[in-house]
Amino acid sequence: MQKFKYFRIVYLLIVSVLLVALVTVSVLCKESMGNYKDSVKNFKRIVASYNKSSKAHMASVAEYKKKMIKFKEDFLKETYDNQEKEFILNNMASIGDVMEKAGYSGNLKKGEYSKKYKGYKVKIKFDYEKGTAERNGYKVTFGSGIYEYKKYKETKKYASCSTLGDLIFCDISYKKNKLKVTEKSYEPDDWMDFPKVIAHAGGAKREDDSNSIYTNSKEALLTNYQLGHRVIEFDFKITTDDNLAAAHDFTEQGLSNEEVNEKNWKGSKAYGDGNDEGYTTLLVTDILDQMMVYRDMYLVTDMKGDTATVGEEFKVLCKEAKKRDSKLLDRIIPQIYSTGMYDEVMKINDWESIIFSTYKDSKEKAYNTISFCKSKKNIDVVTASYDDKRYNETAIDMVHENKMLMFYHSVDDYSTMTSCRKKGVDGFYTNFLLPRDILLLESQK
Description:
Number of strands: 24
Structural class: alpha/beta
Largest sheet: 6 strands, parallel
CATH superfamily of the largest domain: Phosphatidylinositol (PI) phosphodiesterase
CATH class of the largest domain: Alpha Beta
Radius of gyration: 44 Å
């Protein structure tokens, strides 16, 4: 019995200890869970605070980066703007921007551009290394060169505004540092703004060891245009099929007036000294086609018919010009030889600028001719042979008093040109002299 009582006491003690332990553990667990939850809450608060701080930091970093990028862009922009301002101050423009504004399509890297002008394809090719460009065979040189300029990842080429303008017949300028490209228009009287030399019969075709004159050929036209002539005279004779052949006469081709037509004229050659192969003959249609591409070229006519046929000759000329562009008529200067011829040509078109040439009437007094020209507001020039004694200093003064110009023909050397200028002569028909020759003479005044 005693033994049983002992075990019972031990059992109760064990159970009591276990119950106390269980209660203690329960209390401790409860406290631990509370602490754990508090810890989790604190951890979450810390994480949230960190995230907020991190986001603020990241936003601050992003803002800093943005500011640095803007600073760099502003710095580069100012640098580029200053460089571009230097180009502007030096009267230079971006080739790509100019060509785009002028309506050309092409590739700046290759330097090749083209566009259609009233049905005529105009091709322009730049040679950046040589500082040159070509327009349908006509070559210009950029005296100050062509400059490459890199703006960010973009490459630009800069060249002289005036030379670019001459190349594409545009006025190129800046207005408040913005590029402006405007197509030039050539008015009837503008030909007198060029150096006052007229290339006679197309001008001389220069060879290595000789020069050919009176060829009225394509080669003469292209050569003298390249050499700076912008006012070019051609002789014309009417063909049997109502075209105009650029010719002084047909005898060199062994043809007569009665058998020359467009086909056999185009199949023949024009000849000159030192050239056995001959040059390319022209019709007025070929010259007008060239004028559509060379839009600053003026044509002076020397019709080889008489007063009876001149009306037909000018009808052909006007008809062909209007087929291409009626504005071509503004760049044609009729040369007349008598008072009767004036009336005939004015029936065909209301010409705004006319030259009265005196070589066909050697008996008419200078006073009478000048008086007639004075009465016509559109006769701008009187021209005579440089050895025609009728047109001396007194006659030249009379021409000037009536607000006209006096030209002599054909003056082919600098010495003769100088002596004629001393008499008061304003301009010259020439086979050999160039526009730069008269500019040189004028610079020595």
